[in-house]
TrEMBL record:
Residues 1-23 form the signal peptide. InterPro entries: Bact_solute-bd_prot1. This is ABC transporter substrate-binding protein. Transmembrane segments: none annotated.
Length: 552
């Protein structure tokens, strides 16, 4: 067993073992007075968000006669996950956790384990007449209630139901069309055509500054990059928001059989292709390690346009205030067609939703606090509460529609529009995605959106239109894990195996691409397969196969 494998296994085991310490450290948690509620939540300090002084926090405190006190973490998924684990394991945890699904939410396995240990409070009896908005949402969208129901049949937390059309196809490629025009090239349609375009970006000075400073293809974290580039060879799920192995992203299907995709020769072919691009300097060396701030710095480089393309859900790496107009230059490239066809990654199970929960109540919370917390969440599910919580102050951050306004989906009646406050105003008025509990298609797609996609006000429409390139390319090999329930001791066993396998594949894939492991070496490939076996890959597939069969 190699040292790099030992490190991967140890890291995964550490996350899994930490959960077993929760009950021991928290048998008699201390609590605060009933009018003081403590909450663990991510805080976007980079956008000047301060939950303690936030306008929506103040609104909730006045409306519900309560003092909200926060333990905060960052919007960095890895750091946020670690801090949440430490918070729970310490025993000195808050009354509630309010998280963001694509940063770090509770997995279904965590909910069952923590609920069984008494750390989390069941919410079933708290949902009813006192939560009319949540109850109505469950009735309107049965999938929302199904998503909230854990494999053991109980509701240990509330997830974020987000019918986000563009989120449903997360692995996109955004390419600089101005560079294509300058070089007389078309958008690529196959992996080899993409190689040709990237080589031209690297060698033919498309930004015209006489320097070889172009970055042909970049990414942040590498998950969208791998998914987009490998799907022409083998179905490869998007692994974003999977920092702790919370979804079985490595699994696919072949007919009625669950398959671990990295065991297939086609997966090796896909990695070989990506590795060849990296070896030729066509992929940013930092693509697998840099965070959002790093790629934003490249996208908005003061030296001019240097990024030729980027693999990510949407082109957030370029801001709209660059005088050269680069904000409008990036367009989505449809799925590439390869030996496996033109698959696009579709993250089903409630569109932008994932099994688990963003909101939970701990056993530190008294009965009075539990009721108050549920009333607060219920308010955020209501129409006005949702707008105030996610977007901010009416008349400053959002407004009701006026005559002539057009909804994102033009077949719907417009229901609200987001405003752009004057610079320096309205920056700390909302909780953002923390308050996004129920965004069904009617709510999201009824948003008033400018018809000019090249303006900041038309950004949502830009994403809506771009996503149409990916719809209809869903793979037949997709594994519908959101419809599969694993319960009892098997769920506990699965949590450890899944964490280890998923984290290891993410690490090993990056190592193969960057040359730490040699994808062309039969010895390295055999070692990789043995590593998977040692981590319990066979049992991993077996558990999901049995659960999938039982769900049919």
């Amino acid at each position: 067993m190699t040292s790099r494998f030992v490190r991967a296994a140890a890291a995964g085991a550490a996350l899994a073992v930490s959960a077993s310490a929760f009950a021991a450290c928290s048998s008699e948690p201390e609590t605060t007075p009933d009018d003081v509620i403590t909450i663990f939540a991510p805080q976007d300090a980079g956008q000047e968000q301060n939950l303690d002084t936030n306008a929506f926090t103040k609104l909730l405190e006045e409306k519900f006669d309560v003092d909200l006190q926060f333990e905060t973490t960052t919007w960095d998924g890895t750091a946020a996950g670690e801090k949440r684990q430490i918070s729970l394991a310490s025993g000195d945890y808050p009354d509630a956790y309010m998280l963001i699904p694509w940063i770090d939410q509770f997995s279904s396995e965590e909910l069952v384990k923590l609920g069984g240990q008494g750390v989390l409070m069941p919410l079933d009896d708290l949902i009813g007449e006192d939560t009319p908005n949540l109850t109505a949402a469950f009735e309107k969208e049965p999938g929302f209630k199904e998503l909230a129901t854990s494999p053991d049949g109980k509701i240990w937390g509330i997830p974020a139901w987000n019918d986000c059309y563009h989120c449903s196809y997360p692995s996109k490629l955004w390419m600089n069309s101005a560079w294509l025009d300058t070089l007389g090239l078309e958008q690529p349609t196959t992996p080899e055509e993409l190689r040709t375009v990237l080589e031209a970006f690297k060698t033919q000075d498309p930004n015209g500054n006489g320097e070889a400073d172009e970055i042909p293809l970049s990414a942040a974290g590498g998950s969208s990059l791998l998914s987009y580039l490998m799907n022409p060879f083998v179905y490869t799920a998007e692994m974003y928001a999977n920092a702790e192995g919370t979804t079985p992203a490595t699994l696919g299907t072949s007919g009625d059989q669950v398959v671990l995709q990295p065991t297939k020769d086609e997966w090796r072919d896909g990695i070989s292709y990506v590795a060849s691009l990296y070896a030729d300097g066509l992929i940013d060396e930092a693509a697998f390690t840099q965070n959002g701030e790093a790629i934003i710095a490249k996208g908005n480089s003061a030296e001019g346009v240097i990024v030729g393309s980027a693999a990510m859900m949407h082109p957030w790496f370029v801001s709209d205030d660059n005088e050269d107009g680069r904000y409008t230059q990036y367009n989505a490239v449809p799925p590439l067609t390869g030996p496996n066809g033109s698959d696009a990654t579709y993250s089903g199970g409630g569109a932008g939703a994932a099994p688990g929960a963003t909101f939970v109540i701990t056993n530190r919370s008294s009965e009075a606090k539990q009721k108050k917390l549920m009333q607060i969440v219920d308010f955020m599910v209501s129409y006005d509460g949702h707008l105030l919580g996610e977007f901010g102050v009416e008349g400053v951050n959002w407004a009701r529609p006026e005559a002539g306004d057009v909804a994102l989906d033009e077949t719907l009646e417009p229901n609200f529009k987001v405003l752009t406050p004057p610079e320096g105003e309205g920056v700390n008025n909302s909780w953002g995605p923390i308050a996004q509990f129920f965004s069904d298609a009617e709510f999201r797609n009824g948003q008033v959106t400018a018809t000019d996609v090249d303006t900041p006000e038309g950004y949502e429409r830009r994403l809506f239109e771009a996503t149409k390139h990916y719809e209809g390319h869903e793979s037949d090999e997709l594994f519908p894990y959101w419809d599969v329930a694993v319960t009892g001791e098997t769920a506990t066993e699965l949590a450890t195996i899944q964490t280890n396998v998923e984290n290891f594949v993410v690490q090993a894939a990056a190592e193969f691409v960057t040359g730490v492991r040699d994808i062309g070496s039969d010895e390295d490939w055999a070692e990789f397969q043995q590593n998977l076996t040692d981590l319990g890959a066979d049992r991993y597939v077996e558990i999901y196969q049995e659960a999938w069969d039982a769900s049919k």
